[in-house]
Amino acid sequence: MGSPQQHDLPSPVTSAGRDGLDALLSDPERAVIALDFDGTLAPIVPDPEQARAHPGAVHALAALAPRVASVAVITGRPAGVAVRHGGFAGVPGLGHLVVLGHYGAERWDAVSGTVHAPAPHPGVAAVRAELPGVLESVGAWRGTWIEEKGRAVAVHTRRAGDPQAAFEALRAPLSDLAARHGLIVEPGRLVLELRPPGMDKGAALTAYVREVAATSVLYAGDDLGDLPAFAAVDELRKDGVPGLLVCSGSSEVTELAERADVVVDGPQGVVGLLSGLARAISSRGQTGKS
């Protein structure tokens, strides 16, 4: 077998990561490529409503998706929002794409083009109603921004005068608010998300890998909310499913970089990695037929 570096693929820094990459390249038709959206496929922007997939992301995914078992975008956003912001609908080559929105509570697949989802948790509506008063009571209203996510609600502090100070000031009161209504708080990159318990990217990833009977998995993420997915890959490895952990590099979050097998330079680096995988798989297929 040829070296992955011949196709501009980075070399994993761990033996488990190297095993994961080798397994993916050796049997791509049984591999799952799983990716976060914001910060991984789409650059982080001050207003999440303006986030869009990197210009090269759809092309890279369309080149890779037909060569693997499935590509899964796993995001805290509503599935339909991720599909629109990603530009995934109706793209030739993306028939093997699914979007697991709200940490797997919602599912969109390219074959049907529809979203399937259960009823929302009642605590989300209660929290939504009380949230403005809580922000005002702690003096953190100015510059913060509430993102409506349907099955969750998030408070962003990136546009506050002191983003980190606002973030820290809100952690305790938002945790109390969430607990009163049966929700939890998920911290991220200058964002605090209030959502139902039991929803995380790790559970969504594990269930999907099992569903499609994948024999290898790659997961790429950039934020604290991706740590459960990293942990899920670790557990899958113990169960005999090789995996590759990719960090979409960020100076704001170091925990993922420290645990990753490969660190790339943000969404642009992720696109380069996906494109390199598509080329490497294609090359190996052609070599095998010669």
Can you put this structure into words, describing what you see?
The chain has helices at 15-26, 57-64, 79-86, 122-137, 163-180, 201-211, 227-238, 255-259, 266-289; strands at residues 31-35, 70-74, 97-101, 106-109, 115-116, 145-148, 153-156, 184-187, 191-195, 216-221, 243-248, 262-264. The radius of gyration is 19 Å and the shape is globular. Helices cover 39% and strands 18% of the residues. The chain starts with 14 loop residues before the first helix and ends with a helix. The longest helix is centred in the last third of the chain and has 24 residues, at 266-289. Mean pLDDT is 91; it is low at 1-6. The relative contact order is 0.18. Helix 4 packs across helix 5 and helix 6 runs parallel beside helix 7 (227-238). Strands 5-4-3-2-1-10-11-12 form an 8-stranded mixed beta sheet, sandwiched between helices. It has 290 residues and is of the alpha/beta class. A hairpin with a 4-residue loop joins strand 3 (97-101) and strand 4 (106-109).
Outline, from the CA principal axes? globular
Overall pLDDT, averaged? 91
Structural class, from helix and strand content? alpha/beta
Q: What is the end-to-end distance?
A: 14 Å
